[in-house]
């Protein structure tokens, strides 16, 4: 298992979150999640402009083993998706913490208060 980046926040549904400028949050899946899924073969990205609520299912990653829903960590609007994943979903397996999946312009960054820091997430996945 790789070392968890301490600059990210983590959801119990195994998404990582990076806060960018202008209340935009970048979302990907953790190394733990991609290891559990196995080789990714498809990513169903959310539609640009879609309004989502915090903890709402908004994307799907599919592997050779299974499909897994991804959830928005914040309420807001989808402002970017990583279109490269359409042709190369394995980028997530190769570099889970540098491969983002979608970005949300958050209505309120306080939604992130429910997420874990790296230490708490590490303890969570070790349970």
> What is the topology, as strand order, of the major beta sheet?
1-2-3-9-8-5
Largest β-sheet summary: 6 strands, antiparallel
**H/E element string?**
EEEHEEEEEHEH
| Computed structural class | alpha+beta
Count the domains. Answer: 1
Count of helical regions = 3
Over all CA atoms, what is the radius of gyration?
A: 13 Å
CATH topology: OB fold (Dihydrolipoamide Acetyltransferase, E2P)
Please tell me the CATH architecture by its name: Beta Barrel
User: For the record, what is the CATH homologous superfamily label?
Assistant: RNA polymerase II/Efflux pump adaptor protein, barrel-sandwich hybrid domain
Strand content: 25-35%
Low-confidence stretches: none
The shape is globular
Helix share of residues? 10-25%
Distance between the termini: 15 Å
pLDDT average, as an integer? Answer: 96
CATH class: Mainly Beta
Number of beta-strand segments: 9
Structural account:
By secondary structure, the protein is of the alpha+beta class. It has one domain: RNA polymerase II/Efflux pump adaptor protein, barrel-sandwich hybrid domain (OB fold (Dihydrolipoamide Acetyltransferase, E2P)), CATH 2.40.50.100. The protein is built from three helices and nine strands. The chain has helices spanning 31-37, 91-94, 118-126, and strands at residues 9-10, 15-19, 24-29, 40-44, 51-52, 57-63, 67-71, 76-81, 102-106. The strands form two sheets. It has a six-stranded antiparallel β-sheet with strand order 1-2-3-9-8-5. It has a three-stranded antiparallel β-sheet with strand order 4-6-7, with no helix packed on it. It is globular. The two termini are 15 Å apart.
């Amino acid at each position: 298992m790789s070392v968890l980046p301490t600059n990210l926040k983590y959801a119990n549904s195994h998404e990582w979150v990076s806060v960018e400028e202008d209340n935009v949050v970048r979302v990907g899946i953790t190394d733990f999640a991609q290891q559990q899924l196995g080789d990714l073969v498809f990513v169903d990205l959310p539609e640009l402009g879609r309004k989502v609520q915090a903890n709402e299912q908004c994307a799907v990653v599919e592997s050779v083993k299974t499909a897994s829903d991804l959830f928005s960590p914040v309420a807001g609007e989808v402002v970017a998706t990583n279109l490269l994943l359409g042709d190369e979903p394995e980028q997530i397996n190769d570099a889970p913490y540098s491969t983002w999946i979608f970005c949300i312009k958050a209505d309120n960054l306080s939604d992130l208060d429910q997420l874990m820091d790296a230490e708490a997430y590490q303890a969570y996945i070790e349970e």
